[in-house]
Amino acid sequence: MPLYEHVFLARQDLSAQQIEELTAQYKGVIEQMGGKIAKSEYWGVKTLTYRMRKNRKAHFTLMNVDAPAAAVAEVERQQRINEDILRQLTIRVDEHEAEPSAMMRKVDRDRDRDDRRGGFGDRGFGDRDRGGFGDRDRGDRPPRGDRPPRGDRPPREDRDVPSVTGGDQEQGS
């Protein structure tokens, strides 16, 4: 049977238990149609790059599937009908990875890094100025105070500039 990696994104307001129930439901469909789930990983709630159906975050779940194409098509059909599923993606692969997926390795790596640093308190954000853009590199542009004089250009009110409001102009009849 062909091998697939199937990822689906569920709405952020669902609980972890509801996500497990959805995963079990889709696993049941695949097993009923003669396939099996080699591995299932819950990646957690992640921020989306752009809004999908008014959601900014979603629950991500990966399933490594060993099933006929009809079983995968049925799961995708049910997910399109379900309002709780924002997106799904199924990719056919030559073989499943035995070790955890890249997303799970990233989570483990981040957790290890946080443990070495002592959690969030030791990251140096405590004394950082959070307002404005004072620390931003301005490139070649000089600060506003160092600009050259404006020259012989007259002040704004003395210039001959047509009025934008339209109050000085006559209205045609």
Describe the structure.
The chain has 173 residues and is an alpha+beta fold. The chain has a domain at 3-95: Alpha-Beta Plaits. It has helices at residues 16-32, 69-81, 102-117; strands at residues 3-11, 36-52, 55-66, 85-93. A four-stranded antiparallel beta sheet has the order 2-3-1-4. It is elongated. The N and C termini lie far apart (82 Å).
Topology:
Blueprint: E1 3-11, H1 16-32, E2 36-52, E3 55-66, H2 69-81, E4 85-93, H3 102-117
Antiparallel strand pairs: 1-3, 1-4, 2-3
Helix pairs in contact: 1-2
Quick description:
This protein has 3 helices and 4 strands.
Mean of all residue-level pLDDT scores: 80
The general outline is elongated
| Largest sheet, spatial ordering of strands | 2-3-1-4
The CATH top-level class label of the domain at 3-95: Alpha Beta
Helical proportion, percent range? 25-40%
Rg over alpha carbons: 29 Å
Q: Give the strand content.
A: 25-35%
Q: What is the correct CATH architecture of the domain at 3-95?
A: 2-Layer Sandwich
Order of helices and strands: EHEEHEH
How many beta-strand segments?
A: 4
Low-confidence stretches: none
